[in-house]
Amino acid sequence: MEKVLVVDYGAQYAQLIARRVRECHVLSEIVPHDLSMDGIRALQPAGIILSGGPMSVHSPAAPGVDERLFALGIPVLGICYGQQLMAQALGGEVARTGGGEFGRAELHADSSESTLFSELSPNQTVWMSHNDAVTLPPRGFRTVASTQGSPIASFEDPLRRLFGVQFHPEVSHTSQGTELLKNFLFKGCGLMPSWTMTSIIERAVEEVRNAVGDARVVCALSGGVDSSVAAALVHRAVGDQLTCVFVDHGMLRAGEAEQVEETFRAHLQANLIHIKAGDRFLDELADITDPEVKRKTIGRTFIRVFEEVARDELEDASFLVQGTLYPDVIESGTRVAARIKSHHNVGGLPEDMTFVLVEPLRNLFKDEVRRVGEELGLPEEIVWRQPFPGPGLAVRVIGEVTLERLELVRAADHIVVEEIKRAGLGRSLWQAFAVLVAVGSVGVMGDERTYGHPIVLRAVTSEDAMTADWARLPYEVLEHISNRIVNEVPGVNRVAYDITSKPPGTIEWE
Ligand code: XMP
Question: Which overall architecture, per CATH, does domain 402-497 show?
């Protein structure tokens, strides 16, 4: 499959660029800026995009570009810092022009003479964020667009198929940004919009078949979107060779274990083994308050249970399906092979593991996985499920995890889920949940002093969990949730709403 590389110069927007390219139905991959020329050639890109970045090209520490990149015959689009690097590497000039430009700017383009602006309207609003700017284009380039602050807001060398823009076409404030990217992809690189959900699925199915042959395959199913979609894909590829193992660690949400099993059996005809191991997990967690130790204990216990099942019931299975997503891959560095973060679905895998991993979603973002799930016919309750951490409610019980504290947070969480659903807000939120904190709080109920537990309500919006904002929930919804929790969950006498974004906070409390 032909792809475009997004070379990451530390931009806030590298992921967004990759996503926009994919929205144009072209596969994109993010690579670090110090990837060697051989590394780039080996990936055989049909186009390259150099991202923006926080540095000045004149700073001694600024990441550079190998000029040979521009002689590979592969079309290149430089965005912001990327444009400046291109200008500098090819003999143009970049200078600090004055105050810089931040935010909206009015751009005028000569669309008749340009590939990037072909068939776009000559005037559009663009989004700028820079101090330096190109002041002289390299030989062979011509200026095709300008703003008041950037006389060379875009340039092109049509012969070498090199393009640069000072503004950010990837952000939604640039009114024709996507059209400009399409011009780069389809006219500049000659690509076709062929990376569609159907082609993604067909390709993944084929790859899994080739990798697995007629061996048996196991999938650790959590009931979440990623592992369910991965299971459905692998099931389509190898049918009954697949067995899914669902380990209920007792820290799921109210009714979740039953629901997972029910929907799974109704919609996926794969073999399923459901292990109930709640007591065992709780025993292991006794007296532990440190969040990392908690996570590790859960991860380890999970593996033990999983190994036992694999040994006793799935003797000859040699492949393990994981719902690893593209952000997991980039987060652990773009050079990772099959490294699994300690926080992934299965909670970390043993070093001496003999399974070969099957990760059919490792090129996809979450929203893409959801679309694959829909295309595979998975029901809405699986595909649009909110993400839920592998260690479950244990990360939402701050301090020791006891059955009593777990039940308390589970009951409060159930109310949150119900009320958010009733208000029709489910799809607009990334997650909404309750957290039980480890402090007491004085209250008054029925003329009596109470000393009870505060519950923290957390609701966030996000595109991919890398960043998130606290959700502006309507007051009435907050009121309902608060009233119901205090009235219906014994021991809770206060509800607080977390109004921290990520960063600086994280989504979970731990
Ligand atoms: P944080 O708290 O790091 O969470 O902002 C980001 C997203 O990841 C989810 N999360 C996990 N998912 N296993 C998972 O599969 C885990 O151990 C885990 N911990 C956090 C979290 O719910 C949020 O969506």
Answer: 2-Layer Sandwich (3.30)
